């Protein structure tokens, strides 16, 4: 357990993947964190099963945490969909170019992920982890939150302490949400599904399989070391939600795919799913993340990944505010930026369930016909194989400054992460490892005069990066580091932007694209979130990630 003698600034409630990720993101930025979990240890339940490229990129930003996680993953290649009679329909695998620097969709076992994340917290001295500790009360004040924590059982000692902020990452039955009296809006579904996690399985595919047979829809996700998950839609009366099924049912459902013994069943439980979103994600100094904020059907594989997106969006903002570099107004953008995307992902998950896992034979036959017809056309094939039906992640309202002109389409979207040539020896490096943890300002084919034309105040304190295009050799200049294209992707990304600047937030969202003439306007818009006047100071990026490097706006 990591310990710290100083009082914590942030209380994170819940040590599931979202809470553990939040603790890492905050702790790696120098924030003092207390992480509490009501259970005695991390979960043994294999709930989530897929980690996407955006989530791995977020872990990368927390001191290179992705390297510790990779050994428990199966680098995946998306999902294959099958129609009536088991006929293949489409392999949805994204663009296939590792746009964000990591494989697109990666199976894993949640207990393994939680174990690794907990072990790595020991490297952060500012994070204190307490299992077997429950939040029992919280009192909100203008400058703090008074929390009551009970260790052990009902008769355990109660500790009261003050923290600056509380993060509710404590799941669908969130104590934090209940104490704040924040309702969930949406609906629950009567369908019952049976999850069976097995050992010693022969499936070795690196993709998930969705079998849309209306007689018995099935999901199969092979994992690491002979693990495999099966999910079956149950008939009424076969098993009740929240209960363990009889082994005879398990064996019968698995019979078409494998033989099974009781010892080869790691977990089997029936469940029903929900499509719910909290009425608000912030209440004064308290925030909801992960399942405490939203719950969705599993068919888009985005439940856990949405929680990681919550943490990525919020934690850098908290670090800025706690360090006095940003105003409280920046924290309001957590709700305005995350709510639309969470709502869209919930809706997509519901639609996928209705279409892919329908029990209506006429609807299934129509679905198969439409998919096969679309696959015969290049636009239809791209739409399905690249999963272009996924919600647009663009942030349109918040800490972004959309301006007319070239590059506008990048604003509010995650900056891709190509590999670049960096340093005097032209080392092949992931872009984020050059940018560091804070804000970054990329000059695209810019000159010294372009940099000198930036206003003396208004823009965030940022890592300054010269981007050399058209196969030119990168070189460092005074106060700036240089990068060059390695494989054509950097040139393609910034084509048509020569002479422009790209301002990137710590969560890798593009905040603004502007010419020197519009820099003052972009800075004025961002000043709404500043605790004091921003300066145009830039810092040279280090070749390697530095945990104490802030690079945050002021």
Number of beta-strand segments: 29
The number of helical runs is 14
Q: What is the structural class?
A: alpha/beta
Q: What is the residue-mean pLDDT, rounded to a whole number?
A: 91
- Which residue ranges are poorly predicted, with pLDDT under 50 across at least 5 consecutive positions? 533-554
Beta-strand share of residues: 25-35%
What does this structure look like?
By secondary structure, the chain is of the alpha/beta class. Strand 1 (about 10-15), helix 1 (about 15-25) and strand 2 form a beta-alpha-beta unit. Helix 1 runs parallel beside helix 7 (about 305-320). The protein is globular and about 75 Å long.
What brief labels describe this structure?
single chain; 554 residues; alpha/beta; eight-stranded mixed sheet; seven-stranded mixed sheet; 14 helices; 26% helix; disordered C terminus
Summed up:
The longest helix is centred in the middle third of the chain and has 28 residues, at 329-356. The chain is globular. The protein contains 14 helices and 29 strands.
Write the layout of secondary structure elements.
Blueprint (H helix, E strand, L loop, with lengths): L9 E4 L3 H11 L5 E5 L12 E3 H9 L4 H4 L9 E4 L5 E5 L12 E3 L2 H11 L6 E5 L1 E9 L2 E8 L6 E6 L1 E4 L6 H6 L3 E5 L4 E6 L9 E4 L6 E5 L5 E6 L13 H8 L10 E7 L2 E5 L3 E2 L2 E3 L5 E2 L7 H20 L6 H28 L4 H14 L3 H8 L33 E4 L4 E4 H5 L4 E5 L3 H5 L9 E7 L12 E5 L3 H5 L6 E5 L5 E5 L4 H8 L11 E3 L14
């Amino acid at each position: 357990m990591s310990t710290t003698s100083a009082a914590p600034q942030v209380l994170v409630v819940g040590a599931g993947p979202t809470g553990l990720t939040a603790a890492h993101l905050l702790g790696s930025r120098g924030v003092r964190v207390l992480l509490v979990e009501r259970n005695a240890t991390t979960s043994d339940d294999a709930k989530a099963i897929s980690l996407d490229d955006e989530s791995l990129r977020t872990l990368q930003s927390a001191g290179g945490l992705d390297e510790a996680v990779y050994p428990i993953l199966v680098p995946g290649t998306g999902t294959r969909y099958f129609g009536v009679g088991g006929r293949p329909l489409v392999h949805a695998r994204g663009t296939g170019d590792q746009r964000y620097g990591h494989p697109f969709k990666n199976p894993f076992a949640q207990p393994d992920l939680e174990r690794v994340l907990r072990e790595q917290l020991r490297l952060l001295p500012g994070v204190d982890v307490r299992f077997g500790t429950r939040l029992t009360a919280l009192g909100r004040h203008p400058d703090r939150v008074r929390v009551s924590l009970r260790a052990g059982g009902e008769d355990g000692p109660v500790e009261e302490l003050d923290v600056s902020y509380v993060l509710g990452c404590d799941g669908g039955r969130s104590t934090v949400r209940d104490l704040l009296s924040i309702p969930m809006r949406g609906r629950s579904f009567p369908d019952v599904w049976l999850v069976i996690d097995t050992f010693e399985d022969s499936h070795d595919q690196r993709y998930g399989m969705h079998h849309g047979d209306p007689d018995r829809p099935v999901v199969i996700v092979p994992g690491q070391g002979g693990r495999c998950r099966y999910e079956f839609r149950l008939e009424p009366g076969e098993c009740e939600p929240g209960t363990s099924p009889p082994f005879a049912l398990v064996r019968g459902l698995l019979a078409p795919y494998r033989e099974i013994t009781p010892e080869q069943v790691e977990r089997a439980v029936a469940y029903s799913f929900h499509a719910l979103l909290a009425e608000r994600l912030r209440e004064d100094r308290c925030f909801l993340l992960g399942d405490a904020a939203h719950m969705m059907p599993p068919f888009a594989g985005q439940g856990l990944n949405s929680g990681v997106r919550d943490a990525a969006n919020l934690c850098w903002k908290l670090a800025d505010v706690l360090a006095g570099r940003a105003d409280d107004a920046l924290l309001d953008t957590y709700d305005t930026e995350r709510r639309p995307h969470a709502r869209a992902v919930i809706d997509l998950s519901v639609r996928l369930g209705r279409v892919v896992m329908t029990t209506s034979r006429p609807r299934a036959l129509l679905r198969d016909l439409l998919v096969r017809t679309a696959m015969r056309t290049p636009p239809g094939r791209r739409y399905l194989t690249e999963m272009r039906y996924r919600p647009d992640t663009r942030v349109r309202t918040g800490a972004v400054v959309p301006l007319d002109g070239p590059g506008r389409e990048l604003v509010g979207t995650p900056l891709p992460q190509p590999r670049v040539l960096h340093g005097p020896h032209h080392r092949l490096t992931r872009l984020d490892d050059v940018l560091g943890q804070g804000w970054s300002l990329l000059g695209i084919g810019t000159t010294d005069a372009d940099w000198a034309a930036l206003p003396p105040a208004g823009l965030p304190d940022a890592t300054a990066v010269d981007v050399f295009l058209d196969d030119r050799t990168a070189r460092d200049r005074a106060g700036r580091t240089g990068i060059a294209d390695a494989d054509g992707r950097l040139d393609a990304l910034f084509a048509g932007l020569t002479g422009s600047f790209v301002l990137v937030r710590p969560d890798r969202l593009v905040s603004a694209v502007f010419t020197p003439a519009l820099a003052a306007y972009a800075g004025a818009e961002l000043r709404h979130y500043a605790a004091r006047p921003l300066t145009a100071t830039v810092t040279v990026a280090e070749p390697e990630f530095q945990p104490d490097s802030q690079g945050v706006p002021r």
